[in-house]
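chain below, 76 aa
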Amino acid sequence: MESSIVGAKGQVVIPQKIRAMFHIKTGTRVHFEARNGEIVLTPITPRYFERMAGCLGTGGKATRALLEERQKERAL
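prediction:
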């Protein structure tokens, strides 16, 4: 079990083993959710979007379009 301490500004450091396990790098966006009395942190990575593909009933077209759009934005 990994742990961290909350700093004065409410910041925590995600332990290196956990960051490596979930491919969290500098600049990775994360999503926080309160679920059943726990805080769930989910990294917003291409893998996250792949898992979500199909939830809109578009067969993953929306996910591919979003990822392509994000790639174009980064190229600017």
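The CA atoms of residues 29 and 45 lie 8 Å apart. Residues 29-75 form one domain.
thats it, cya
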